[in-house]
Amino acid sequence: MAQGLAAIRGNKWVAGIAQGLNVVKVSVADVRVEHAVKLTDFTKWLDRTGGSPREVSDGHRIRSILGMPVPR
To answer: Tell me, what's the pLDDT at 53?
Structure first.
């Protein structure tokens, strides 16, 4: 909570929020996440067909990001 409040206090619009009993909800969006995977394993996963709907969707999205043709 403290990190979230510190992050938003740097914005001018926050000065207009009254103190007191107001509820402040903090959602962290810029958390650093690190993944490590062998490039050959990633390529095999990306080239495979089938899988769960989410895997297929993720594969299409990643192929698009990488400028690769997306299977239809």
So the answer is: 92
